[in-house]
Structures are given as structure tokens and as C-alpha cells.
Amino acid sequence: MRSMSLMVLLCASSALADDARWHRVVGLLEYLEGDYANALATNDQAELEEQRGFADEVVKQLEAGGADASAYLERAKTIQAVIGEAKPAAEVTPRCGALARSIAKDKQLVQAPRRYPAMDDGKKQYEAVCSTCHGVTGAADTEVAKALDPPPAKFLDAERMATLTPYKVFNTTSFGIPGTGMAAFDTLPEDTRWAQAFHIFTLRQPACDHVPPRVSVAELATSTDVQLAAKYGENEVACLRRAMPREDGGSLAIAQKLLDDALALYAKGDVDGARQAVVDAYLNGLEPVEPMLRARDERLVMQLEQAFTRARVAAQSGEHFEAEVMEVKVLVGKAQSATNASGFWAVFVAALLILLREGFEAVVVVGALLAVLKKMNATQLARVVHAGWVSSLVFGGVAFAVAHQFFAGANREWLETIVALVAVGLLLYAALWLNARANISKHMTEVRGEMTQALASGSTLSLFLIAFSSVGRESLETALFLQGLAADSFDGAVWGAVAGLVALLGLIVMVRTVGFKLPMQTLFKASTIALVVTAVMLLGKGVHGLQELGVLPIRPVPFVRVDALGVFPDLWSLLAQLLLATGAFVFSRNEKKLTARKPA
């Protein structure tokens, strides 16, 4: 165990060293992107020579990176050549920016602090370490500054600051600038360097007089003042730079804290603890507010779920764990920013669509069961099916009332997963029963008698459970989604749910009517297919639920993801679904052969 921990720590140290190289290269490229045009415009030969030195350093770092850096070397040499020839900025700046972004994306570099910086500490550390050259106000008017050539950056210069982001400043503080008085301060704690970088962006801003919009720390770290002004308005920049959002005690804040814990555990070599912390962040941080978030931004929820999955896989493989967790933190930050409530009609439409979406698969199953009972002259047992799905609606209503206390986080995920897996077994039971009778229409009188007797004796409970479980999972999910919508507009959620329920009942009537008009053999075959497809879909959701709970491992594969159909790009869930579908098909084929051999 000790040797394993040592191995993890050595791997982590190697990864950190590689990340430092890539951050340095990206920092130099971004410096070139922001400064080359000005150096060329002023025809300052000293500045141009400095730019050439930066381009030479980029090439040198990539050459030292070996095969892993070879994909970027030719592009870097092109930049080196055009800067050496003092080509127009239009030929240099875009190349530098594009290469920097390619490296940051490919190497999954973390370009933001792990938490919102402590601004008071940033001010204190800036004045203690940086003010000697840059001045307390950022004017770079000190005696030391006057003696430096080139002079230090003036943080009050709007044109200069227009090209900078906190991430660029953080890189400069971490690695320094060769050939200048800007030394590397990589011995300072990472949090301190980030806090200093963020403080620098407050120096030229007026006092904040209002609460700014909530923006993720990643966006603040990688945006210039100009970009923030363009997105949020000029009057918001000062407060965005000065007033860091306070951490709240809500669910997403818990997710952020647990993700921080995961990073700390991984750095110590506790891989299992880090993976479990990521799982806990999902279950205790995202799951409780997922219905509300899904109602407001379903695409963001999907991105969060996929990012959490990648983080758990990274914990297992040991590759890019820190970067993947930071990506989750960025997305959680976006979720924390999504505080704008929806209006009545937006909630109404969302609630209606949720009712239809969640209820469709259940309607098909219930409609098939009712149609079979009709054909089998066992309509007296239709009340059992109705009792099953009506009971599930009551169950959903209870879930809506007590969701916060009993059906949040891991409890909700466990309940949905268990219901899905139980439903798979019951649906297969129903499908195989239908399949066994799909080819004996010439013995219908005998079959009706046997069916009636079977239903009357031991299958009544099965019918009830099939109907209940088929609707129960969707009922639970619908209740939780509606609870999230009700936070924005209670009336919109209620009336949207009523409209969706009416449409759903109409769909049930339609399915029953179509089922009644089908020939017996066609009905049996169609119902069997519907039940098996639903079982395969629920199996995918059940396996995925167990993976989200950390019970089963994850093995991502390149494949489509369709949550509503229970299709996920994971080897184990797809394999389970394939085995189930194949098994059902083989059983059906064998059943047909056996039936064909029976004497008439």
C-alpha cells in the first residue's frame, strides 16, 4: 500500500511538472498575443527584441518537451520566424492566441483558482511583494521602477490592462519574464499568487456600490476587463473585480467544498478518497438541486453530469484528475450563477413537456397491458392495472410533498435506481408471458381460459406491480422536476402539470383504442417489443444510476448519449443493454421454434 501511495505521489509530481511547462508556454504566448502589436507600433527595438526572446523561449520549452510537444513545435517556429522578421501584428497575434488556446485545451490546463480569492489577503501580499516596483497604487512610479529597463507594467494604464487577465498575471508571477526585472515568485503559495493577480485588477477600478451578477471564478480569471464590460456592461466591471461572491451554504457550495476536498486527497495520494469525494459532491451537491437546474438549463445539467463522470474516470486512471475536477468546479460555478427565475409561461410549458416526456414510456406499457386484458376477456382485472398506475401517481404526489426531506441526493438516486431495476424484471416477466402466446391464436379459446385462471389466481399482484413500477419512476422524477419549477412559479408548475396530465390521459385513451383494433397476433408482438424496449431503456438508467452512486465502475466509450432512452456512452451499461436485448431476441426465436413443432 505504501509503495502504491508513493507511486501515485510520483505520478502527481510528474504531472505537476508537465503542467508547469505548459502553463509557462501558454503564458508566454498570451504575453506575445497582448504585447507584440504595441511593440511593433512604437517601433521600440528593445521591446521587439524582448518579443523575439519570448518566441525563442516558447520554442525552447517545446523542444525540451519531447514527443508530447512535437505537435505544437512547427506552429511555434512559424511564430518565431514572423516575429523575427517583424511581420505585421495581423500575422502574429492570431497565431499566438490560437496556439495558446490549443495547448490549454489539449493539455486540460487549469486556468483558474480553486476557490474565489481572498481579496484582503491579495491586497496585503501585493503591497508586501509587488509594490516595490509597481507601486502601491499600481502606477509603477517608485524609485526602483525608474531604474528598471524595461520599466515594470503600469496597472493603471487602461490600454495595458485591456490585454491582461488574472490568469496572465498569475503566470507572470509564477514564471517571471526573462530579460526583465520581473522575477519568478513560484515559491509563494498558489492561493497567494492568485489573490495578488485578482487584486491588481481592482487598482484602476472605482469603489463598488452594488451587488454584481454572480460570475464563475473561472470566467473572472480568464476574462479581460474589456470582455467583462462587453458581456455584463461597463458599470458592472468594478464590482465584478472588487466584490468576490460570498460562498453560501447551499447545495452547490457543498459540491464546491467536496471537490476541493477531492483535490486535496488526490494530492496526498488518496485516490479512493478523492474518487469518493467526487461521488459525494455529485450526490450531496448536484442531485438535490438537479430538478431546479434542469428546468432552467437542461444543457448545463448534462454538461455537469458528463464532467462528473470524467472526473471519476480520471480518479481511476490517474490522468488529468486535477484538470477534470476543475472543469466540474467551473460548471458548478455556472450553475451557481444561474439564479434568474423563469416566468409563468416558461414554467407552464416546461411542466407540460415534463409530464409528456416522463409519462410517454409508461403510457405505452400500461396501454399494452390494458389492450391485452381486453383481448383476453379479462377486463375485470383492468382495475388492477388502473390501481397500479394511479397508486404511482399518488406516490409521486407524496414525493412532491416530502422531496426535500426524503428524496434528495443519494436517497433519490438510490430510489430511482432500485425502481428502475425492479421494473426491468417485471417488464421482462410480462414480455415473455406475451411472447409465449404470440403464435397460438388458433387455440384462443383455451388460452383465454388459462389466462383468466392465471390472472385470477397468482398474477394479480404482478399486474399491479408492473403498472405501478412502469409509472412509478417517471412519477417520482416528475414530482422532483415540478418541485424545481415551482421555485420559479408555483402557479405555472401546477397549471402546466394539469395540462400535461390531461394530454397524458388523452394519450392513454389513444393507445388503448389503437390496441383494441389490432389483431391478436400483431398486438402480442407489438406489446412484447414495447415491453422489452422499455426494459432495455430502464436497465441503462439503472446501471447508470449505480455508476453515479459509485457502486459500479465507469468505462467511457465513444457513443451517443440519449438520457431519455437510457443510452449512455459507457461500456458496461451498453453491454448490459446489448445482452438483455440479445437474450430476449434469442428467447423469442427459440419460443417460436418450439411452438411451431407442437402438434395442432
Description:
It is built from 25 helices and no strands. The chain has 600 residues and is mainly α. The chain folds into four domains: 2-106, no CATH class; 119-242, Cytochrome c-like domain (Cytochrome Bc1 Complex, Chain D, domain 2), CATH 1.10.760; 251-337, no CATH class; 344-531. Helix 16 (290-296) packs across helix 17 (298-317) and helix 19 (344-375) runs parallel beside helix 23 (490-517). The protein is elongated. The protein starts with a helix and ends with a helix. 42% of the residues are buried. Mean pLDDT is 76; it is low at 1-17, 404-409 and 437-454. Residues 1-17 form the signal peptide. Belongs to the oxidase-dependent Fe transporter (OFeT) (TC 9.A.10.1) family. Keywords: Heme, Iron, Membrane, Metal-binding, Signal, Transmembrane, Transmembrane helix. Its main location: membrane. One of its GO terms (molecular function) is electron transfer activity.
Question: What's the total helix number?
Answer: 25
Number of E strands: 0
Low-pLDDT regions: 1-17, 404-409, 437-454
Instruction: Determine Rg (CA atoms, Å).
Output: 31 Å
Largest sheet: none
The separation of the N and C termini measures: 68 Å
- Mean pLDDT, to the nearest integer, reads 76
Total discrete domains: 4
Helix content: over 70%
Q: What share of the residues does DSSP label as strand, in percent?
A: under 5%
SSE pattern, N- to C-terminal: HHHHHHHHHHHHHHHHHHHHHHHHH
What class, by secondary structure content?
A: mainly alpha
Shape designation: elongated
Membrane topology: Multi-pass membrane protein
Protein name: Cytochrome C
Organism: Archangium gephyra
GO molecular function, one term: heme binding
